[in-house]
Design brief:
The chain is an alpha+beta fold. The chain is built from two helices and three strands, in the order βββαα. Strands 1-2-3 form a three-stranded antiparallel β-sheet, covered by helices on one side.
């Protein structure tokens, strides 16, 4: 399986309100024919411009760790995958 390509697509200020500016860092994630973007929102007052990318990367990492932990129960063992591959329920044409 090929590796994912993760790149910072853009950074933009999305809101200036009573809490200050909010920054959105958008990451482009690609692997083979699959590509999608994930926005990460940060409070602009928490980080200066040079720290935003590092903080957004950390937030993206934590999001994927949480997602992997939630999906862990879906993981199949090699024996389970082999058993499934041998179950051909489709009609033979």
């Amino acid at each position: 399986m090929s590796k994912f390509k993760v790149a910072l697509a853009r950074i933009e200020v999305v809101e200036e309100g009573e809490q200050g500016k909010q920054v959105c860092a958008v990451f482009q994630i690609e692997r083979g024919p699959i590509g999608f973007q994930i926005p990460i929102y940060l409070q602009g007052r928490d980080f200066d411009d040079t720290e935003v990318v590092q903080a957004a990367r950390s937030s993206l990492y934590r999001m994927f760790v949480d997602l992997a932990n939630q999906c862990r129960i879906w993981e199949l063992s090699p024996a389970e995958l082999e058993r499934l591959s041998k179950m051909n329920l489709r009609p033979v044409e």
